[in-house]
Design goal:
This protein has 287 residues and is α/β, with parallel strands linked by helices. The chain has twelve helices and nine strands. Strand 8 (128-133), helix 6 (136-149) and strand 9 (150-157) form a beta-alpha-beta unit. The longest helix is centred in the middle third of the chain and has 29 residues, at 161-189. It is elongated. The protein binds NADP nicotinamide-adenine-dinucleotide phosphate.
């Protein structure tokens, strides 16, 4: 297939590379230079990448960035053709995704929201989970591409519901990690070696994908970004926005947001979100 890939960050770069490896013709665009994907043609604008493409895949930071690459100057919009499918793997506000879909459908193309989970390692290894919202016939057309970049896709329902499910899942990740960070900090202050607590967690029902992925990084104090703190912070704001509109109270998340605010104030926004444990440790007087 001829695929335009827009956004070659931590996730988009390896996703596009996996499409190239699978033999697809990829034209890739990234806002700043220096993130080229070997084997993909570099495009100067999103519109140029999308010209003649069958599918446009987007993986950029946030709602504003998606709007920019779709409808901004030299955006994908200028190259939309009837039958073209745009797939958005960025995590954005579900209501904005629906609005973007309407604008794309007005041109005879379609938008499928397919946010992802699996982080950097999942993107590199092609084992992502795609959380999909969209018309069944459009999802069917891009199904082979989910198989190249991921281990599974789940079609949640109509367009926008992929984003809705994704932010709920990230809410759980934020709270699970916060529980891990607070439990680890309290027990180490009480004298339990951190490695022993992790051994206990991994041998008990507390074990989860989050502790499997993050515990080794936390034990090594390696906060190089897999899922940057600034992006989880952005997602927390999306969750709080969506919750307010839906009339849902999220008291746990509101508290966790304070930890993210404090982490950003420490200057850690570009570190992994696991660095938020540093705030709990600092408040506990642990260096
Ligand atoms: P990233 O490394 O920060 O990359 C962000 C990408 O968006 C870069 O290509 C960046 O371009 C581009 N971008 C940002 N603002 C833009 C704008 N206004 N116009 C055009 N391009 C813009 O982020 P990532 O980790 O790949 O995440 C991408 C998306 O996937 C996000 O929505 C994130 O929440 C979601 N996600 C991430 C993970 C993870 O573990 N990392 C997991 C699941 C979902 P530049 O290179 O020019 O800055």
């Amino acid at each position: 297939m001829r695929i335009a890939f827009v956004g070659l960050g931590i996730m988009g770069g390896p996703m596009a590379a996996n499409l190239v490896k699978a033999g697809h013709e990829v034209k890739a665009y990234n806002r700043s230079k220096g993130k080229e994907v070997p084997g993909a043609k570099a495009a100067a604008t999103p519109a140029e990448a999308a010209r003649d493409a069958d599918v446009v895949w987007i993986c950029v930071a946030d709602t504003k960035a998606v709007e920019q690459v779709l409808f901004g100057k030299d955006g994908v919009e200028g190259s939309l053709r009837p039958g073209m499918i745009v797939v958005d793997s960025s995590t954005i506000l579900p209501s904005a995704s629906k609005e973007f879909a309407e604008r794309i459908r007005a041109k005879g193309a379609d938008l499928v929201d397919a946010p992802i989970t699996g982080s950097k390692i999942g993107a590199e290894q092609g084992t992502l989970l795609f959380i999909v919202g969209g018309r069944a016939e459009s999802v069917e057309k891009v199904k082979p591409l989910f198989a190249v970049m991921g281990k599974k896709y789940i079609h949640v329902g109509e367009q926008g519901l992929g984003e809705a499910a994704k932010i709920g899942m990230n809410l759980m990740i934020a709270l699970i990690f916060e529980g891990f960070a607070e439990g680890l900090t309290l027990t180490s202050k009480l004298g339990v070696p951190r490695e022993k607590l992790v051994e206990l967690i991994q041998a008990s029902m507390i074990r989860s994908g989050v502790t499997d992925y993050k515990a080794p990084f936390v034990l090594n104090k390696d906060y190089s970004p897999n899922f940057p703190l600034r992006l989880m912070h952005k997602d927390i704001h999306i969750m709080l926005d969506a919750a307010e509109t839906a009339g849902v109270r999220l008291p746990g998340l509101e508290k966790v947001e304070e930890v993210y605010e404090a982490s950003v104030a420490e200057g850690w926004k570009d570190l992994d979100y696991a660095a938020t444990i540093g705030v709990i440790e600092k408040w506990a007087g642990i260096k």
